[in-house]
Design brief:
Length: about 300
C-alpha cells in the first residue's frame, strides 16, 4: 500500500477537531437553548403563529444538529474500532445536502419570518392532503385501511385549524396553496437581488455537487464508488481520506453558515462567537473563507 498522502501535510496546516469541534458543539447548544427558552416572539405580529414559528425553527435546528453530528460520527478519524471501515465515511457525503437544504430554507425564511413560516406550514398541509388523497384513491375501498384513514383525516382536520387553512384552500389546495419551493426555485421568490445571487452561488458550487452524490449521476458515482475499483486499488485509501476530510470540513462550514442565518433572523447577539469560528476554519479551508466573504462577513457585522 502506498504511503498515506496525508502524512506530507505540515502539522501547522492540519486542523484538529479538538480545536474547533467543542466550540462548534457549544455554538449549536447555545442556539438550541435560546430558541427553546428565549424565542423572540415579538418578531411575529400574529400571535396565533408565535408558537408554531418557534416549533418550526427549533425542529429545524435539531435536525441540523443531528445531521452534523451524524456526519462527524461517520467521518471519525480517531476511533480504532476495526468495524468502522474508512469507506463508511463516504456515506456521509449525501448528508451534506440535508444541511445545505437547511441553509437555503432559513435564508429564504429570513426575508419575512412570519409570512414564510405560514407558507411553509400551509405548503406542508397541502403535501399531506395530496398524500391522503393518493392513498384514498388506491386503498379507500379496503376495509383494512379504515382505521388508518380515520387517524389521517383527524390529523388533517387538526392542522387545518392550526395552520389557518381557509375553506377555499382546503377545497382546492393545488390551486390555492403555494408549494414550498425547492432550493433551485427559491431565488425566483425572493425580493433581494443580493440573496438571489447568493442562492445561485450556493446552487452552482454546493447544491449541485451534493445532489450528484445523492442521485448517483456519473460525477456522484465517481465520488462515491470509484475507489472500490481495482484501477484505484493502490491509492484507494488516500482518495477516501481526502474525501472524508473534505466532508468533515464541508459539514463544519455549512453548520456555521446555517447558524449565521439563524443569528441574522433571531438576533441572539452571538455574532462574535460565529465570526471567531469562521476565522479559525477559514485559515485551513479556503472554501469556508470564500463562503464567508460571499455573505456572512456582511451579515455578521
Amino acid at each position: 500500500m502506498n504511503k498515506d498522502g496525508f502524512n506530507s501535510i505540515p502539522e501547522d496546516k492540519t486542523l484538529s477537531h479538538k480545536v474547533v469541534g467543542p466550540k462548534v458543539n457549544d455554538l449549536i447548544e447555545f442556539y438550541v437553548n435560546k430558541i427553546d427558552r428565549e424565542f423572540p416572539f415579538k418578531q411575529i405580529k400574529d400571535k396565533n403563529w408565535r408558537g408554531m414559528s418557534r416549533v418550526i425553527l427549533l425542529t429545524l435546528v435539531y435536525v441540523a444538529k443531528n445531521t452534523y453530528r451524524s456526519i462527524l460520527f461517520l467521518c471519525d478519524m480517531v476511533s480504532k474500532d476495526p468495524a468502522r471501515k474508512i469507506e463508511y465515511s463516504l456515506s456521509a457525503i449525501p448528508l451534506l445536502r440535508v444541511i445545505m437544504e437547511e441553509v437555503f430554507t432559513v435564508a429564504f425564511i429570513s426575508e419575512n419570518l412570519e409570512e414564510r413560516i405560514k407558507q411553509y406550514c400551509k405548503a406542508g398541509w397541502r403535501e399531506t392532503k395530496e398524500e391522503y388523497d393518493r392513498f384514498l384513491a388506491c386503498y379507500g375501498k379496503d376495509k383494512n385501511w379504515i382505521s388508518w384513514f380515520n387517524k389521517y383525516k383527524e390529523h388533517l382536520n387538526e392542522t387545518t385549524g392550526l395552520f389557518g387553512i381557509t375553506s377555499a384552500e382546503a377545497a382546492n389546495p393545488k390551486k390555492n396553496i403555494l408549494s414550498w419551493p425547492t432550493p433551485g426555485q427559491m431565488k425566483k421568490h425572493v425580493d433581494s437581488s443580493v440573496l438571489k445571487d447568493f442562492m445561485q452561488y450556493l446552487q452552482d458550487w454546493y447544491y449541485k455537487q451534493f445532489s450528484q452524490a445523492v442521485h448517483l449521476t456519473y460525477p456522484g458515482l465517481a465520488v462515491m464508488g470509484s475507489h472500490f475499483l481495482p484501477t484505484y486499488a493502490d491509492k484507494s485509501e488516500d482518495i477516501v481520506k481526502k474525501l472524508r476530510s473534505d466532508c468533515a470540513f464541508h459539514s463544519i462550514t455549512l453548520i456555521l453558515a446555517y447558524f449565521s442565518e439563524i443569528e441574522h433572523i433571531l438576533k441572539f447577539q452571538h455574532k462574535k462567537e460565529l465570526k471567531y469560528l469562521w476565522t479559525i476554519v477559514s485559515e485551513y479551508w479556503g472554501i469556508a473563507q470564500e463562503l464567508y466573504d460571499k455573505r456572512y462577513q456582511n451579515l455578521l457585522r
